[in-house]
Amino acid sequence: MNFASDNVSPLCPEILSALEHEAYGNAPAYGADETSRQLDAAFSELFDREVAVVPVATGTAANCISLSALVSPFGGIVCHHEAHINEDESTGVAFFTGGAKLMPVDGPAAKLEADNLDAFLASRVDRGVHSVAPECVAITQATELGTVYTADEVAAIGAICKKRDLRLFMDGARFANAVAHLGCHPADITWKAGVDAISFGATKNGAQAVDAIVLFDTSLRGRVEQARKRSGHLYSKHRYLASQLLAYVKDDLWLRNARHANGAARTLCDMLVSHGATLAHAVEGNELFVRLAPELAQRMRDAGALFHPWPSLGADIYRFVTAWNTDIAQISELNDRITRN
Amino acid sequence: MNFASDNVSPLCPEILSALEHEAYGNAPAYGADETSRQLDAAFSELFDREVAVVPVATGTAANCISLSALVSPFGGIVCHHEAHINEDESTGVAFFTGGAKLMPVDGPAAKLEADNLDAFLASRVDRGVHSVAPECVAITQATELGTVYTADEVAAIGAICKKRDLRLFMDGARFANAVAHLGCHPADITWKAGVDAISFGATKNGAQAVDAIVLFDTSLRGRVEQARKRSGHLYSKHRYLASQLLAYVKDDLWLRNARHANGAARTLCDMLVSHGATLAHAVEGNELFVRLAPELAQRMRDAGALFHPWPSLGADIYRFVTAWNTDIAQISELNDRITRN
Amino acid sequence: MNFASDNVSPLCPEILSALEHEAYGNAPAYGADETSRQLDAAFSELFDREVAVVPVATGTAANCISLSALVSPFGGIVCHHEAHINEDESTGVAFFTGGAKLMPVDGPAAKLEADNLDAFLASRVDRGVHSVAPECVAITQATELGTVYTADEVAAIGAICKKRDLRLFMDGARFANAVAHLGCHPADITWKAGVDAISFGATKNGAQAVDAIVLFDTSLRGRVEQARKRSGHLYSKHRYLASQLLAYVKDDLWLRNARHANGAARTLCDMLVSHGATLAHAVEGNELFVRLAPELAQRMRDAGALFHPWPSLGADIYRFVTAWNTDIAQISELNDRITRN
Amino acid sequence: MNFASDNVSPLCPEILSALEHEAYGNAPAYGADETSRQLDAAFSELFDREVAVVPVATGTAANCISLSALVSPFGGIVCHHEAHINEDESTGVAFFTGGAKLMPVDGPAAKLEADNLDAFLASRVDRGVHSVAPECVAITQATELGTVYTADEVAAIGAICKKRDLRLFMDGARFANAVAHLGCHPADITWKAGVDAISFGATKNGAQAVDAIVLFDTSLRGRVEQARKRSGHLYSKHRYLASQLLAYVKDDLWLRNARHANGAARTLCDMLVSHGATLAHAVEGNELFVRLAPELAQRMRDAGALFHPWPSLGADIYRFVTAWNTDIAQISELNDRITRN
To answer: Where is the Aromatic amino acid beta-eliminating lyase/threonine aldolase domain (chains A, B, C, D) (predicted)?
Structure first.
């Protein structure tokens, strides 16, 4: 009953099969193999337009490498205070971009709001070379607090970026959970809404270790590939990244896994609420942030549940994360145990 | 019959089993799992002293992160002109170290010679803050040209480093091939010879994607782990790196794989020599650099062999690389084909 | 009647004389000359303890080079939102430090408050390599809004830094104005209060172009000198920096200039208040931030005064800056003109 | 009798006058003043085409900032082994460019030869993202060994750069000495020969501290100005850089100073040769590299001459540098003294 993170889950059977399939014969290195060469087509089909795909093994790499191609070393990246790039990636953004500055802003439930974003940008005084000019906006979908931008919300942000000549990047570590929640086409919340590049996460949702940098502006590919190589993120046995990704998008595995995780989150949510928990934020993906009375929190722990306090949201707020492999029966069992106690 | 690189080989069965073994239950992320926590002990036993192990997925990451902990942004890294860090890792060293400079020197068969190294270091004029002072020496074992430093040769370099207060780093992308060739204990060519840190390669020798940064100076661990995180090389599902490494060193798998590859290289070498090829360098690991008459090179290609020209060594020099999975029977078959032609 | 900035003032006669004095004979380059070699002693006397002095030509260089010696590339620098390093130095801090992150906090009148600082630091959740740990606090004396920390206020911040093992840096671009205001000994608000290093500004207060990095922790000298050289801030004709600094601290020139500027600011303040202006912040140094009715602002402009609106403080807030050469008679003249209008 | 460097000379009277002229009234900061605004026109006239001028205080800054606008963080800069950027600027190039790599090549008397350069470039094996691709060639005029490229020699290098789509940069720390030697128009050895940008040195030739980045590709101005600011090289009292430069190019001061220095070098050369010294390189600017018998070297020192050994050229090689203020009578006096001894 480990709800500490979706990172605690193992790879899923389909991904394992894909790796096993690449366990025999030789193949060219560094992405020249047949498996790797299918990536662009597979993702172009998925997104319904031509894209360039550059896979890496971690979300931090996907985010930071993408951003290094979107901003100059003198520029600013507007993001939410809660953004992973702001809170969880050490000084990675400055490292990869050569100095670009994060410009955190607030917004409810870890989401940027278009109007507030516009007001923030309008309020920046341009003092030429002295000040840092925003060059990019970065949003997370689903957010770090388990909420999801609607297609309209992304498009509103995209319109502001276009108006102000800014790039728009999406951290999609939990992109699948967002699409599963919205029931939309992936295009609706990405390039059709003005997104230039996305880190398309798979690791948290059933892969072993792969996130795809998906470039809707394909002219960025060369720069991204240079940055990937020199930061040590180009796999020699590249097919082991590619095969995970192909399996991940085949037959909607990514969405099936995400739907399961989202559903488990709702089930867990309902159960917790029935015991008196209250929601800190809407549950739209696979993360719950709930207020638990100390006594309930203790009963949960005694029943064997693993989960983290989330002090930045308040002293009695806890995070629960579900995953592709969360066992619904275990939630029932957990309910039984804390009811009995 | 792919001799283009050892990177073309797949992962080996034992590594696949290790991954499969981690395909079920949940486990803590970022290295707190039981598998990952066995690493230090396993490698401390392997090297017969306390070490700190920080696994990453690629050799470039292992090399550059290690060096970032060994030199300042103002320092120099003395290496051979042929070194992978100098020739094959883009501007990665400067990126990770914040500006440190590679100082390439020559030497036969891609090896630094202690006397020449000492003379080079002695000849540097120290002009204080204006000039770049060497802070580290980096050697590759086995070298990029398939040769191997003896324990005495490493120790001689180590003694110079100690005398001049320099760090000594070893790029061990093919460390297993070197140990298999020398028949020595791993300690003999590392910490006992003055090496501070090594990138202990597994990817080329049967793993899917993992190289271990092994720190003999364990005080470097904190800095290395910070550099790993911010460069995006900390795996969330860390156990998939750790499990590969544990399988790799268990029951001497790393040496068995390397011995096979080395043996295949010798077999291939003998076969090629019997057809008139001449060696550009001694064959001590799993790489051959041979001079082929154009007609023989063509016959090889016609017979289905894949291999690369190596123009930096001469117009008619070719590289052949064997691996853990090289089929000795195929070398016989290749011999038959080119003999028949 | 140029109140746009203290940077609009020329060098003062004593500084010019010092340069003229170095206009003849030859002298060793790069700081080995007799003039430069007097710096450490002069500043050690000024601060009443042994210090190391490393002069550079600009405040941005002094700040960023100092910080690069105080924090790691993975660390955070806590400063006020209004800090020059946060608002006016482009992405300089990240550039010089190799990625360190500014952590801006609020406080009245551009000052950090010890209690709030401690609360901010206490609230940071340490998530190991994922999060950025504060390593340094940077304060500005006098602040960007013309206010001044008392010795007790600096000491309270210094005590927090000591308790939490953080470095304390002071941006002293207008240090002279602060000391002139407080009437204290320079030591009282620097090393005795826990400051590790200061950029001791001279440019705004009568010099041509020189700010001194003054290190109370003299062990930082080597690192600072390396950073100075590779960033192009080591003057070959170093005596032209040194001679400015020696003249600047001789016979209290720095304090005399600052006292004049501070006095002019108070005179200007009184005059403006008599016309209905209200203060946005206390006038403690040589900067005024005042609220002017649109009609008064226009009359000032019509009378020939140059000054900037300061929109970040409010729509009708304006900044006036006085300098060592502000003509008190001109303030009277200005008063006459706007009175007549 | 200080021949240690041209950096030991003071500023010249005309430069001092220019500074004195800016010693009174106020003026806008950061380059908006009238003096600074004359720079582009003055240098456009000097070079007989539209240029953009960005002044900084040191040659290292001028070189490194220029290069940061000419190459990517992944690129290579081909230069001579003896180049100042390779030997005397610490790790400045990597710092400013974000990692670009110096690719030193050999050539007689510190000069790149077009044919060898072309052969070097042709021999580079392009291995895509793995290898570093040259993006720029940097030459020094006059060179670090006191020799001068003819206009044809620069043009031949420029043609190769054009053919191979590389940028061409010129380190002109002693550009005046080169032009004075050649008797050519400044355009002949710069933009007409394919140079994209030059650091136009003044410091060594009579200025206090200023080198001008002159951009023949004026589209680079924005990037250069951003890099200047964030590296702390934008003067607040910018007029003190501008006034030096305007005085320097007015009435051919720069050439008059350089002609004097070059003439003094020839006089000193003749004198030394008459005592048995032999030249290590042709004397074309204001630097001499001569072989002195130990006994002669000692007599020189006993006579009061200051000069440096130059061990990289040989054990008995010494460097003498003359400057705008070298006293010809002192060379006679020196001759008398060593003749008498």
So the answer is: 3-292
Q: Does the beta carbon of B340 lie under 8 angstroms from any beta carbon of chain C?
A: no
Nearest-angstrom CA–CA distance, A193 and B282: 60
- Cβ-nearest to D101 among B74, B75, B91: B91
Among B129, B132, B224, B230, the strongest candidate for a mutation testing the C interface, having the largest count of C CBs within 10 A, is B129
Task: Report, in angstroms and rounded to the nearest whole number, the Rg of chain A calculated over CA atoms.
Answer: 20
Q: How much is the average pLDDT of D90-101?
A: 98
pTM over 0.95: yes
Domain ranges, ordered by start, for chain D: 12-253, 256-340
A162 burial type by CB count under 10 A (0-12 exposed, 13-18 middle, 19+ buried): exposed
> Going by C-beta distance under 8 Å and a sequence separation of 6 or more, which residues neighbour residue C200?
C43, C62, C172, C175, C211, C212, C213, C214
The predicted-structure confidence for A4-63, as pLDDT tens digits, reads as follows: 999 999 999 999 999 999 999 999 999 999 999 999 999 999 999 999 999 999 999 999
Rounded to a whole number, what is the distance in Å from the CA of C86 to chain A's nearest CA?
9
Contact between chains at A74 and D226 (C-beta distance less than 8 A) = yes
pLDDT at D341 > cutoff 70? no
Query: Which residues have a Cβ under 8 Å from the Cβ of D265 and sit 6 or more positions away?
Result: D146, D283, D285, D286, D287, D288, D320, D321, D322
The DSSP annotation for C234-253 comes to --SSTHHHHHHHHHHHGGGH
Domains C11-251 and C254-340 share a fold: no
Q: How far is A77 from chain D (nearest CA, A)?
A: 17
Q: What is the CATH code of the structural domain delimited by B11-252?
A: 3.40.640.10
Q: Which residues of C touch B220 (CB under 8 A)?
A: none
In the β-sheet with B52-56, what is the strand arrangement from edge to edge? B52-56, B211-215, B197-201, B167-172, B133-140, B75-80, B101-105
Q: For chain A, where are the alpha helices, taking DSSP H only?
A: 13-21, 39-47, 59-70, 84-87, 92-97, 114-123, 151-163, 175-182, 221-230, 239-249, 253-274, 294-302, 328-340
Subunit contact C129:A90, Cβ cutoff 8 A: yes
Measured CA to CA, the distance from residue B57 to residue B201 in angstroms comes to 10
User: Rounded distance, CA B255 to CA B248, Å?
Assistant: 9
Domain covering C11-251 assigned CATH 1.50.10.10 in the classification: no
Q: What is the fold of D256-340?
A: Aspartate Aminotransferase, domain 1 (3.90.1150)
Judge whether B138 and B170 are in contact, CB under 8 Å.
Answer: yes
Name the architecture of domain A12-251.
Answer: 3-Layer(aba) Sandwich (3.40)
Q: In what order do the strands lie in the sheet with B317-321?
A: B278-279, B287-291, B317-321, B308-309
Q: Tally C-beta pairs within 8 A across B and D.
A: 58
The set of chains that have 3 or more CB pairs under 8 A with C is A, B, D
Which residues in chain A have their CB less than 8 angstroms from residue D69's CB? none
Q: What is the pLDDT along chain A (341 residues), one digit of tens a residue?
A: 899 999 999 999 999 999 999 999 999 999 999 999 999 999 999 999 999 999 999 999 999 999 999 999 999 999 999 999 999 999 999 999 999 999 999 999 999 999 999 999 999 989 999 999 999 999 999 999 999 999 999 999 999 999 999 999 999 999 999 999 999 999 999 999 999 999 999 999 999 999 999 999 999 999 999 999 999 999 999 999 999 999 999 999 999 999 999 999 999 999 999 999 999 999 999 999 999 999 999 999 999 999 999 988 998 999 999 999 999 999 999 999 999 86
The ipTM value here is 0.97
Q: What is d(CA A233, CA A225) in angstroms, rounded to the nearest whole number?
A: 9
Closest-CA distance, A303 to chain C, in angstroms, reads: 26
Distance in angstroms (rounded) separating the CA atoms of residues B101 and B115: 22
Range B254-340 classified under CATH 3.90.1150.10: yes
